[in-house]
Amino acid sequence: MRYSQGGGLTAERQCFREELRLQAAERFARGEASSVIAKDLRVSVRSVQRWRQMWDEGGPRALRSQGPASLPRLSEKQFTQLEAELAKGPAAHGWEDQRWTLSRVKTVIGRRFHLTCTVQGVRKLLVRNGWSCQVPARRAIERDDDAVAGWVKEVWPCAEDSRRPVEPGWSSRTKPDSP
C-alpha cells in the first residue's frame, strides 16, 4: 500500500522516514547531487527529487512528518468495546456461522457506534490494533481420518495416471516420419 494512503506506517517507521528526509535536507544545503544522496540513503532518486522540491519551497520544516494520513475512527475505549462484541461471536449478532468477515465487523461498528466506514477502513482499523486475517482450519465433525488415509493409499494411486509414458518417448515435439 502506498504511504500517501496511510499504508500502516508505525510511529517508529514515520520517525525513520522523517530522519531520512532531514538528512537529505542537510545534504541539499551542501549542494550534493540527488543521485548521490539517493544511493547513500538507499531511496529512489525520484524521492530525493521530490524532497528537494519541497525543501526549495519550504525549507527543512516542509520535510517534517505531518502525522498519520487519517486518524482512527474509533477511540481506544470504543475499540475495546468492539473487541468485547467480537468476542461474543457472530451468532450473538445474528449470523448463523462462526466467521467474522470485514463486512460483518463493519455492520457491528455501524450498529454499536452509529459510524459508517468502508470495508478497507475496517481492515486498517483491525490491523492497526494488532488483528490479522485468518482463515480457520475447518474439519467436518464426521470426518474419519483412518478412512481418508486408506483412500489416499489405495484409491488415489489407481485414479492418478502415471505421467511418464510406458513406451520410449521422442525428444522432438514433432512426431517422426511414419515408416
Fold topology:
Elements: H1 11-30, H2 34-41, H3 45-58, H4 76-88, H5 102-113, H6 119-128, H7 145-159
Note down, in words, how this protein is organized.
The chain is an all-alpha fold and 179 residues long. It is built from 7 helices and no strands. It has helices at residues 11-30, 34-41, 45-58, 76-88, 102-113, 119-128, 145-159. It is flat. The N and C termini lie far apart (63 Å). Mean pLDDT is 82; it is low at 1-6.
Entry keywords:
single chain; 179 residues; mainly alpha; 7 helices; 51% helix; disordered N terminus
Work out the radius of gyration.
Answer: 29 Å
Low-confidence stretches: 1-6
Global outline: flat
Total E-strand runs: 0
Coarse structural class: mainly alpha
